Amino acid sequence: MHELGIASSLIEIVLDTANANGAKVVRSVTAKIGRLSAVDGEALKFAFDAIKEEYPLIAESVLIIDSVPVTGKCNKCGATDTYDEMFFACSKCGSYEVELITGEELTVSEIEVD
Asked: Is residue 91 part of a domain?
């Protein structure tokens, strides 16, 4: 379960950021996870909840997952599209020259603190 390692890294980022900004308590953490990132959001929440208890600053925090769809831009016609499958063909011209715009993210986008 690589989500445990990801949760550990995420917590390290949150603790460093909260401490650098003088936070007393972290209320929530929002993570953007792209569909192509190979991260299971529920497994990440489980791992986050298991580890956070060790750190009083984040012990009561909630991890919010913001799922990011796969979008791409066609390099031939310039059309932008959203993809549900791992088949990246432009819906306008049929070209396979699609450059991914979103869907590979794994970032902390927001930390709510007091």
From this structure: no
d(C-alpha 54, C-alpha 11), whole Å: 11
Domain count, the chain: 1
Nearest-angstrom CA–CA distance, 79 and 90: 7
Burial environment of residue 11 by CB neighbours within 10 A (0 to 12, 13 to 18, 19 or more): buried
The tokens describing 40, both together, are: 């299971």
Which distant-in-sequence residues (6+ apart) come within 8 Å of 4 by Cβ?
A: 47, 50, 51
46: domain CATH number is 3.30.2320.50
Which tens digits make up the pLDDT trace of 43-94?
999 999 999 999 999 999 999 999 999 999 999 999 999 998 888 999 999 9
